[in-house]
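Slide 14.
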Amino acid sequence: MFFYLTLALLIFLYIFIKRHYNQWQRQGIAAAESVIPFSSLKAVFRKEKTMGLAITDIYVRFSESVVGIMLAFKPAILIRDAEMARQILTKDFDYFHDRGVYVNEKRDPLSANLFSLKGHSWRSMRAKLSPSFSSGKLKAMFGTVDEVGNQMVEYILEQFEGDQRKVLVDIKDITTTYAIDIIGSVIFGLDINSFENPHNEFRQISDRIFKTNQTHILHRIRAIMSFMCPPIAQFLALFGTLDPITADLREIVRRTIEYREKHGVARKDILQLLLQLRNSGEVKEEDDTTSWQVDAVAENQKTMSIDTITANLFLFYIAGSETTSSTIAYTLYELAMYPEILQRVQAEVLRCLERNNLKPWDNLSYDILQEMPYLDLCIMETTRKYPGLPVWNRECTNDYRLSRNDFVIKKGTAIIIPIMGIGRDEKYFPQPMDYKPERYAEEKDRNNMTAFMPFGDGPRYCIAKRMGIINVKAALVKILANFNIETQPRKEIEFKFHSTPVLMPKEGLKITLVKKY
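Slide 15: predicted structure.
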């Protein structure tokens, strides 16, 4: 009897799951094949491709404007039409204002960052954090960015031995160190130099995130389920909320905050602005020296916990470090394969420095970086072809009728916008695999700029977009001003599987730098 009951239960579960996985076909829309238990992301579960690349593959296989997919047990709609995607992010934002990922503000405050917060909590946090990324604040912090850029140039020069005039380097490895030091200095307020001390505490944490998997299996599963199936992540959080990496970062933040409060230290960095927010409830919008001071208040009057500060700093870390390093490295790699573009952008950099009476090794300023429009176009083209996040996600918060095919997206359905798929679609960008910065200037009419959204759009666009671009431009100017790049044959980059959503090249990115002076 027990055998037959068990068999009946298994058959029932199979039919139930099969029906759940086939729901898009029953609703009459195009659907990607879902294999139990891998859903539509078999390549991800087999560790063959990252989620972004797997989603891009689905984008390429279909032609319909919407495609039904399954993310583990979570039904989702893949938006393949750029105009529709833009409308969801902007005009119809009220229907899609949440991301639909795991967050628990009360029991798990380290999950409550700007990316994952919902509704009013997100709006309130966004409004409080926005002044931290004003042009005035970025100008004030730029000296630290420039200092890290100089350390990067010195490190590259050390790779040349004796009278050697050129050297083959893994530019991705170098820009990763640059980005880590930028984040450590400008975001966390730490004095680090990973070029001289590659084994410092902060760099080791970064290596554990992006190079190894040193977290417990439950934490890794929970990280995946936070996106694919939040209820499972909610359940797993009951077994512990702190993985070792987050715990270490929290300890760094706690020590730094205690030291600054005890000694009255005021540094021009994001942590300082979050301390302002913690003590006064707002970030001062003035841009003079006194605007970085933090008023002392009683502990019970502080409006933000150390956990909340850590949660948002960790977000800026994850979102900023790898995307910054990759954008710099991909740009230089592409320039090495397009000598005409390289010559044009390098000439612009040198003219700008000369116009401002600067030598290649002199310190830069925030304002000087605004005088390089062609370099801006190169960065746009890099982020089109290699977006920092290959997919954007939203959750339908109210039933929404698609105007084109009269299909109703039900409340609670996940929405996936394949930024990489759209950015590499020849329908929007002719010859999409070619590196053509002119798309956004001379050839703008031939390209559909509605499809250009590597930083998202609408109220939830990337809050640190300007900071990211400044960090990228500073590094590119330092390298282009001090080194030539040897031309190399065209070769498309292959990406490796990784548990994080960013694109990571399989074998690094090798280019040959030539000493100019």
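Speaker note: The chain is about 50% helix and 5% strand.
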